[in-house]
Amino acid sequence: MLSTTQLTEFDREYLWHPYTSFTNPSPVFPVRRAQGVHIELADGKKLIDGMSSWWSVLHGYNHPAINKAITDQLHQVAHVMFAGFTHEPAAKLAKTLVEITPTGLNKVFFSDSGSVAVEVAMKMAIQYWYSQGQAQRTTFLALKQGYHGDTFGAMSVCDPHSGMHHLFHQSLTHHLFAEAPSCKFDEKFDERSFANFSQLLQRNRQKIAAVILEPIVQGAGGMHFYSPVFLQRVRELCNQLDVLLIADEIATGFGRTGKLFACEFANISPDIMCIGKALTGGYITLAATLCNDKVSDGISNGKSSVFMHGPTFMANPLACAAANASIDLLIKTDWQKKVARIETQLKQELEDCRTLAAVADVRVLGAIGVVELKEAANVAELQPKFVELGIWVRPFGKLVYLMPPFIINEQELRQLTSGIKTVLAPMA
Ligand SMILES: *Cc1c(COP(=O)(O)O)cnc(C)c1O
């Protein structure tokens, strides 16, 4: 076993972490184990998790039901190629996903990560039009301030300027970007906020394969919550002009926003939907792309009838077993009540942050609480202060945000919100 000093040394010497410098990395905290909402560090300090390990941990860490599902599956088969074989965890999961996602999404394609699920969605849309004899339709219409992942296709539909990938701009396929929805979630809808999107779609419809967007919550692109009417208008116009709609629910899926899927706020169903992150309850990487009959039949009956994608670890049985257990837990427990309780408490307790000098805005939707600062936060400086207070909060740009596991109790959540106030209060 490595000593903590060795661990830290090896990490510094050999490892890259997300979005960090290799030569001048920000500090990392060695984790020994995690249980429920607590992440335990090597020195024994326990942190209350405010991040759900990036939207993914719903039922807490080390959950007996998910542990058992994976262990049972491990003794059957850990992995088997998905070409020419099938297995119960995948078949069961696909059926469940079709049942719980918006009506009409009837076919499931499994892949390894959210970004790949977005690549698959984009390929489905392109191949759909190819099959219809409209091979020229390869452009996507996305939203500014959107985020869809880190691989090349996904990067090409992320916000081209403020997004994390602008330095790759020259090597990306250029798509179309509509103004981000300016009408906020709880505001009365202003039709003018749809004008730019509408104009772009109408002008370019002949070359557009699909619209791709994050429904209701624009996540890593700024944590903005927009009006469900905007999403309704998008669906209506896509229907009218016969353009496919891809909903990226990778962050919003599985109850995080207060609905099982954010599309439900607008009562719409996309043609293609991507899910990931919370799919396995934060246990193992797994993602899926679902589509409706129009897309699957369109591809199958067309010029190129075979959908051209097939990851090595497609529908990994351990991951599918974890997902089945996680979704079971979610559906069986009263998740709506839990999320509503978190939402109420976040609204009450984060509201005070509004009066702090460093704070520009406070907003809450479902189990997502956002404190937007006036200036970008210095993570290297803030992070140790949060850890000192026994909480795990990881600021990002101007955003200090909370999205705790649904099992968090009132007192633990209060520790998170008051920790944020304590750390932000002295900032100018
Ligand atoms: C995180 C995220 C992705 C990418 O998922 P990975 O699993 O990190 O590849 C794509 N879209 C949205 C909306 C996300 O939040």
UniProtKB/TrEMBL annotation:
The Swiss-Prot or TrEMBL record describes its family as follows: Belongs to the class-III pyridoxal-phosphate-dependent aminotransferase family. BioA subfamily.
- Locate the N6-(pyridoxal phosphate)lysine modifications and list their residues: K277
Names of required cofactors: pyridoxal 5'-phosphate
UniProt-listed InterPro entries: Aminotrans_3, Aminotrans_3_PPA_site, BioA, PyrdxlP-dep_Trfase, PyrdxlP-dep_Trfase_major, PyrdxlP-dep_Trfase_small
Carries keyword Transferase?
yes
Q: Where does substrate bind?
A: W54, Y147, K277, G310, R394
Task: Quote one Gene Ontology molecular function term.
Answer: transaminase activity
State whether it acts alone or in a complex, and with which partners, per the record.
Answer: Homodimer.
Question: In the record, which residues are listed under signal peptide?
Answer: none
Tell me the organism: Cellvibrio zantedeschiae
- The record lists pyridoxal 5'-phosphate as bound by G114, S115, D248, P311, T312
Pfam families in the cross-refs: Aminotran_3 (PF00202)
Task: Give the function comment from the record.
Answer: Catalyzes the transfer of the alpha-amino group from S-adenosyl-L-methionine (SAM) to 7-keto-8-aminopelargonic acid (KAPA) to form 7,8-diaminopelargonic acid (DAPA). It is the only aminotransferase known to utilize SAM as an amino donor.
Task: Tell me which UniProt keywords the record has, alphabetically.
Answer: Aminotransferase, Biotin biosynthesis, Cytoplasm, Pyridoxal phosphate, S-adenosyl-L-methionine, Transferase
Under PROSITE patterns, the record lists: AA_TRANSFER_CLASS_3
Known catalytic reactions = (8S)-8-amino-7-oxononanoate + S-adenosyl-L-methionine = S-adenosyl-4-methylsulfanyl-2-oxobutanoate + (7R,8S)-7,8-diammoniononanoate
Q: What is this protein called?
A: Adenosylmethionine-8-amino-7-oxononanoate aminotransferase
Q: Which domain of life is it from?
A: Bacteria
Site description Participates in the substrate recognition with KAPA and in a stacking interaction with the adenine ring of SAM, residues in chain: Y19
Write down the EC number. 2.6.1.62
Pathway listed for it? Answer: Cofactor biosynthesis; biotin biosynthesis; 7,8-diaminononanoate from 8-amino-7-oxononanoate (SAM route): step 1/1
